[in-house]
């Protein structure tokens, strides 16, 4: 019966039972899940309650130079409020905060760092296309409050990562280091139910995702790869390809976890100051861990994303991730270039 399917809490107890050092991790992920449920409710209200764009005289710009939508700001607040009080987190980094967020003095600090993108794909909010939230959990094993450098940990040091996707259903997809698992929100009982255990990404695919309006700025290996996909069997590839671009990374990665594919936001020459569009700590690293835990591959195009040593908390990075065979081909083209 539906009420017998494993909930997120039951899953976490079972998967973390053998890891006493992570006993608080379950509690933190339950707090994150509560924040996600609140965001799902807020996003679903749409413009019944929230203007898509801030009034021009009240618009604010984040550290990336992006005009913040009211929901960018509100979802950021929701995550901070849900996760600051439980004594589990020592500090937080958000796409929407210039500096790391220190846990208020009247709250106990914990041993985890929470790094997150509270609303991914926010340009889609006004056109009612799926958006999401992305999060990553790192360790902080000292009593001292974390400084910016404590967040600069390579992606393979993540102890948990996940995203929520607010689409026709709200789903939470996460890893605690042993596989990638999907949970669907049952709104009637308010619980996340394990509906997609042990997700596996097919190694082969016939779908690629890239913003082709940037084609003239791509490096030759990417132009070569995408050109071959577009030629399909009339060129050297053994099958024809389909292209997708949703402009919500969460939706692209979710499609890849469900049926395979390759997602690229590669280095381009459009803005020499930006080596890539996406942010390493709270977009690329959590997504790369989820994809690799599902048998896929996460790369900068030149090497594993999870090995990159971050240099700043809002650092951008080129991203190529998804079906193993395709990502390896793209890396080979970079080596041959
Ligand atoms: P965010 O909304 O958190 O700023 O992230 C948007 C990102 C990512 O979700 C998406 O893949 C990419 O921006 C889309 O970029 P383009 O608008 O250049 O296509
Ligand atoms: Mn943004
Ligand atoms: Mn994002
Ligand atoms: Mn965002």
Automatic annotation (TrEMBL):
PROSITE patterns to which the protein is assigned, alphabetical: FBPASE
A single Gene Ontology CC term: cytosol
Amino acids binding Mg(2+) 2: 117, 120, 283
GO terms, molecular function: fructose 1,6-bisphosphate 1-phosphatase activity; magnesium ion binding
InterPro entries: FBPase_C_dom, FBPase_class-1, FBPase_N, FBPtase, Fructose_bisphosphatase_AS
Pfam families named among the record's database cross-references: FBPase, FBPase_C
Key words, A-Z: Carbohydrate metabolism, Cytoplasm, Hydrolase, Magnesium, Metal-binding
Residues holding Mg(2+) 1: 95, 117, 119
Main location (coarse class): cytoplasm
Keyword Magnesium: yes
PANTHER family xref list: FRUCTOSE-1,6-BISPHOSPHATASE-RELATED, SEDOHEPTULOSE-1,7-BISPHOSPHATASE, CHLOROPLASTIC
Annotated protein name in UniProt: Fructose-1,6-bisphosphatase class 1
Native organism: Dokdonella koreensis DS-123
Lineage of source species: Bacteria, Pseudomonadati, Pseudomonadota, Gammaproteobacteria, Lysobacterales
Name of the gene: fbp
């Amino acid at each position: 019966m539906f009420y017998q399917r494993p909930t997120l809490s039951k899953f976490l107890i079972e998967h973390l039972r053998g890891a006493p050092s992570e006993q608080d991790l379950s509690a933190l992920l339950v707090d994150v899940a509560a924040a996600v449920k609140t965001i799902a409710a807020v996003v679903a209200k749409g413009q019944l309650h929230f203007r898509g764009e801030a009034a021009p005289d009240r618009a604010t710009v984040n550290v990336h130079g992006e005009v913040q939508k009211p929901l960018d700001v509100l979802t950021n607040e929701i995550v901070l409020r849900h996760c600051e009080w439980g004594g589990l987190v020592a500090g937080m980094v958000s796409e929407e905060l210039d500096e790391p967020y220190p846990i208020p003095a009247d709250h106990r600090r914990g041993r985890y760092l929470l790094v997150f993108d509270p609303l991914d794909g926010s340009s889609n909010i006004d056109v009612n296309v799926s958006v999401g939230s992305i999060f990553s959990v790192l360790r902080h094993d000292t009593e001292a409050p974390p400084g910016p450098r404590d967040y600069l940990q390579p992606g393979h040091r993540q102890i948990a990562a996940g995203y929520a996707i607010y689409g026709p259903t709200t789903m939470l997809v996460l890893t605690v280091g042993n596989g990638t698992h999907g949970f669907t929100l049952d709104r009637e009982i308010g619980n996340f139910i394990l509906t997609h255990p042990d997700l596996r990404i097919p190694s082969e695919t016939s779908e690629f995702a890239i913003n082709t309006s940037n084609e003239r700025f791509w490096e030759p290996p990417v132009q070569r790869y995408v050109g071959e996909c577009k030629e399909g069997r009339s060129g050297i590839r053994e099958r024809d390809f389909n292209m997708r671009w949703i402009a919500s990374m969460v939706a692209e990665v979710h499609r890849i976890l469900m049926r395979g594919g390759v997602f690229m936001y590669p280095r381009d020459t459009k803005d020499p100051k930006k080596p890539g569009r996406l942010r390493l700590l709270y977009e690329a690293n959590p997504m790369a861990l989820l994809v690799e835990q599902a048998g896929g591959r996460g790369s900068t195009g030149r090497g594993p994303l999870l090995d990159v040593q971050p240099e700043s908390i809002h650092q951008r990075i080129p991203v190529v991730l998804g079906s193993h065979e395709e990502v390896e081909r793209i890396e080979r083209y970079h080596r041959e270039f």
